Amino acid sequence: MATFFGEVVVAPSRAGVDDEESAEEAREETLEDRAIRRELEKKREIDVLWTLKSGASAESCAEEPLVCSEFIVAIGHNAAAFLSSFILDSVCWEVVGAVKLWNEWCRTSNTTNVLPTDSFCLFYRLISDPAVLLCQCSCYVAEDQQFQWLEKVFGCMRKEGLQVTILSTCPVADYKTQESTLTLPSPFLKALKTKEYKEQVCCPLLEQPNIVRDLPAA
Amino acid sequence: MFVPCERGGGSASSDFKGFTLLVPAVSVGNVGQLAIDLVISTLNMTKVGYFYTDCLVPMVGNNPYATAEENSVELSINAEVYSLPSKKLVVLQIRSPFIKNKYRPFCQTLLSWVKSSKCARVVLLSSSHAYQRNDEQLLGTPLRYLLTPDLEKAVGGLMQELKWKEMEKVAAYPGINDSEKVLHIPGGGITKLLFTESCSKGIQMAVLLKFCSEGDNIPDAFALVNYLNEWLQIIKSEVNTSSQWKIPSSWRLLFGNGLPPALF
């Protein structure tokens, strides 16, 4: 959609339901359709694997939720690279878990010895203070997997006394401001915080009409 | 799915017995959602809760109805509920599209919440593609309404008095068999599904929709909200009704940023 000045603004699909999609659903689902749909759903399922103290892997943490006071999540290549460059090292941090997922955009690598160009989602713990957890998520988590990611990862943690910090990046072109984006200071940082977050935030808050979407929002 | 806010009201703030619920459909031009924004902003409605759902694309931002520095820092997400007990009005605002294959579960959960919260009636604000109108629909008002049989009994007469036009049914197989007519709301998102489900579940629902196209849909939103006001009388309608609806601060910069001075 062209604006009054001629720049093209992306207007994402507005009608909530594709007419073809609704027609498809209205058709009776055969056993075969149902089986195919179930297989596809299974393929898109997210698995969260934790390496516990004993060194054994475990999938469910129903018996023993992780005790965590500080959880830092870096989403996207830039944020993950930031953590790799400035925070993570093999001396102070150990890998304690990983998320395995597949979607049309990426498949997470199987190894924990990852390259910056790989798609991965790993959890690290500070050896000197095991209540500090870090997550580097450089893989793209699709829309229909975001809620699952959220429930499976946070489902493993004790929520009392937990402080979560999410690091993410967005293209400057998406930032809406009255001035030109060319004059913005660098680094350009904005924050969103819940009512319960009492500490000082190191940068100004994100003003409307700007929003955050996808996994950081979830 | 509905999570109430922890405010002083407590459970009282989520008692919607006898209230009118306004819901937008995510539809062409987002007209229903824009109209709901106008209602919430003008009436200065209080947020009473949100929907915790996996059916909508996640999003978060600061308060879209902020009027000053002090009230601008409350977080806002993709499905929130606002209420104004003095007018027995409760409003759901939906701010992001449905995730593929999730619109049906959302409709089911929404309608069962409507039943459990004992709302008296639901008004669904929606829109439909203007380019799909037939010859008769090209003339006259672009606004239409629909009522479920239960609500028809209650307010059907009022619609006649207001001289409103009911949404026409179209031929199921145009050109081949014109006798079988069906309801068709192209671009209406979940409108048709919610309406047909409400009919079968005995829910009192009205659909108010406008024919429009994608583009600057602010005038369409005003038209729809004034249409709603003709019936529900949410605000006092005077001669120049457009100026009485308050545009929220989040409607700034809908069509891109300011001009870069380097361009000149």
Note down, in words, how this protein is organized.
The complex is a heterodimer of chains A (218) and B (264). Chain A has a domain at 44-52 and 64-167: PAC-like subunit (Rossmann fold), CATH 3.40.50.10900. Chain A contains 5 helices and 8 strands; from the N terminus they run H-H-E-E-E-H-E-E-E-H-E-E-H. Chain A has helices at 19-26, 31-43, 77-86, 143-154, 214-217, and strands spanning 47-51, 57-58, 70-75, 93-100, 121-126, 132-137, 163-168, 211-213. Chain A has a 7-stranded mixed beta sheet with strand order 2-1-4-5-6-3-7. The longest helix of chain A is centred in the N-terminal third of the chain and has 13 residues, at 31-43. The radius of gyration of chain A is 20 Å and the shape is globular. The model of chain A has no long low-confidence stretch (mean pLDDT 80). Chain B is globular. Chain B has one domain: 3-Layer(aba) Sandwich (Rossmann fold), CATH 3.40.50. In chain B, helix 1 (31-43) crosses helix 5 (218-232) and helix 2 (103-116) crosses helix 4. In chain B, the strands form 3 sheets. Chain B has an 8-stranded mixed beta sheet with strand order 1-3-6-7-2-8-12-9, with helices on both faces. A two-stranded antiparallel ribbon of chain B has the order 4-5. Chain B is built from 5 helices and 12 strands. Chain B has helices at residues 31-43, 103-116, 149-161, 191-201, 218-232, and strands at 2-4, 20-24, 46-51, 59-62, 75-77, 79-84, 89-94, 121-129, 143-147, 170-173, 177-182, 205-212. Strand 8 of chain A pairs antiparallel with strand 4 of chain B, so a sheet runs across the interface. Chain B: It comes from Nyctibius bracteatus (Rufous potoo). Chain B: This is Proteasome assembly chaperone 2. Chain B: It is found in: Nucleus.
Q: What's the Cα radius of gyration of chain A?
A: 20 Å
How would you sum up the global shape of chain A?
globular
N→C terminal distance of chain B:
52 Å
CATH topology of the domain at 44-52 and 64-167 in chain A: Rossmann fold
User: In sequence order, what are the helices and strands of chain B, one letter per element?
Assistant: EEHEEEEEHEEHEEHEH
Mean pLDDT of chain A: 80
Number of separate structural domains of chain B: 1
Termini Cα gap of chain A: 28 Å
Strand percentage of chain B lies at 15-25%
Structural class of chain A: alpha/beta
Task: Tell how many strands the DSSP assignment of chain A holds.
Answer: 8
Oligomerization status of the protein chains: heterodimer
* Overall number of strands of chain B: 12
Uncertain stretches of 5 or more adjacent residues of chain A: none
Which CATH architecture of chain B would you pick? 3-Layer(aba) Sandwich
Pfam family, one (chain B): PAC2
Keywords (chain B): Chaperone, Nucleus, Phosphoprotein
Subcellular location (chain B): Nucleus
Family (chain B): Belongs to the PSMG2 family.
